[in-house]
Specification:
The complex is a heterodimer of chains A (284) and B (270).
Chain A lengths: L2 E10 L7 E11 L4 E6 L5 H8 L7 E6 L2 E2 L7 H7 E4 L12 H11 L4 H14 L4 H4 L9 H13 L5 E5 L7 H18 L2 E5 L3 H7 L2 E6 L2 E6 L1 H5 L2 H6 L6 H12 L10 H12 L3
Parallel strand pairs in A: 3-8, 3-9, 6-7, 7-8
Antiparallel strand pairs in A: 1-2, 1-4, 4-5, 9-10
Helix pairs in contact in A: 3-4, 3-6, 4-6
Chain B lengths: L15 H4 L2 H17 L3 H18 L3 H10 L1 H14 L4 E5 L2 E4 H27 L2 H12 L9 H31 L9 H7 L1 H24 L18 H20 L8
Antiparallel strand pairs in B: 1-2
Helix pairs in contact in B: 2-6, 2-11, 3-6, 3-11, 4-6, 5-6, 7-8, 8-10
The chains are: A alpha/beta (284), B mainly alpha (270).
Amino acid sequence: MSIEVKNLKYTYNPGMPGETLALDDVSFEVHDGETIGIIGHTGSGKSTLLQHLNGLIRPDSGEVWVDGQCITDKSAKLVDVRRKVGLVFQYPEYQLFEETVAKDIAFGPKNTGIAEDQMEKRVRAAMSIVGLDYDEIAESSPFELSGGQKRRVAIAGVVAMRPSVLILDEPTAGLDPAAHDEVLAMIETINASMNMIVIFVSHNMADVARLSDRVLVMDKGKIAMQGTPREVFSHEDELSSMGLGVPPVRDILKKIKEAVPGFESDALTTDEAAEDIRKYFGLK
Amino acid sequence: MIRDITLGQYYPGNSVIHRLDARTKIIATLLYIIELFIVNNFWGFLIAGAALAAVIALSRVPARFIFRGLTAVFLIIAFTVILNLFMVDGRVLWQWKFLKITYEGIWRAAFMGVRLVLLIIGTSMMTLTTKPVELTDGLEKLMSPLNKIGVPSHEIALMMTIALRFIPTLMEETDKIIKAQQARGADFESGNLFQRAAKLIPILIPLFISSFRIAQELALAMEARCYHGGKGRTRMNEIHFHRGDAIAAVLMVIYLAVIIASRFITFNPF
């Protein structure tokens, strides 16, 4: 399983007032089992790019290949593409509509033609992946749940289609810290245990550093930078000129470096930083 | 798809038409609508069409933008035309079982079609060239004499402002929900009418819930800023009539006279 994006171009409102070039010659590849973090200023084209990956938007020019199949081709069967590439929108809980959680999660699989007798198994599996208890909430209304639970129900609705690629647009936006951590842990599990390609957009640099194998930086419809989190976050000045930042732990390390000559660390996460600090100061 | 509906949208500009007082444009549009129903032959429509074309040219709104709005209501126009085509009695031209097309039917269908197109384009010219806020301000001012007989003009204007303000928001919301459901494999394009109607449920329910959420947030935001209705409320920008409005008024009177005169043109090449 791999994704190949070649020279994508897309313009909103062509020929109208408010014409904007949303994607300008975007190319990149995603390999099997990778987790890709996409960062970029608001309006840099991230969401537009995501919607190209499952055929919701057709590019003006360029191609998207998923698993050796060109999905931008007119003859591509979009339902198959959408089963293969699961896309979770921003605030996905706003798409919930069924009477019960189980029925809502079953909506996607039903559309892709899963038999009724397989459904409960599917829904159970999807709920356990996102960390929800089937017996407890499957029969309750999705509108009675808490914000974090609703979010997970909505994600389960996409996971239940068993995609090989899971795309999430700001999966933790608007969640409280506890729910935030749960969603992050869930993404890690999905990537590790099911070997799914995960592509996610986030404004939280600490999350990006923690989850991603590679980071794509978008700026004004172009890919401005790509590489491992360590590579990307070492370009602090360039990132800040694009209105982006680095994980907060970097700022602390910078202060320590200034105060303690000889101390070195290029840690990205709090755990790595703690390790480096312990080592330098000879603590246990 | 859903973004193509330009009805009720504003096209930013600074043309003569844009600068007219909203009240002038509201009255002109009302007159224009009434006149479209005074017209009883195609000569009248020709005059109305020419006047409309002049307004469009003056407004500098691209014709493409205006006509795109028509595509959204195309179904209504087609429905009216077809209904008229088959329902009018008269000299029969073509018949098949109970369906028949008459001479008078064709004439009436064309007449209704043209009237609807002129009506829609004409009214959309008002919203295209007037900011929603100006429009409702104008409406409020126009209705304010009715306050004395208990018409809540401020509240009506506010309701319209909110409705207009949230058209694009709700369209965006709808677009998002459609896409989210499509990403879950929903297919809105196949099936018969009833199947398609049933498929709208996954769009309509989230949309309803969104509208309630938006309404509640807006109400809270208004209360937080001490909104308490129209009484004693002043405004930052008072609207005034200018020379352009006087010219427009004169032109409107002339236009009205011409339209009434057009009823008496009996020359009919058909």
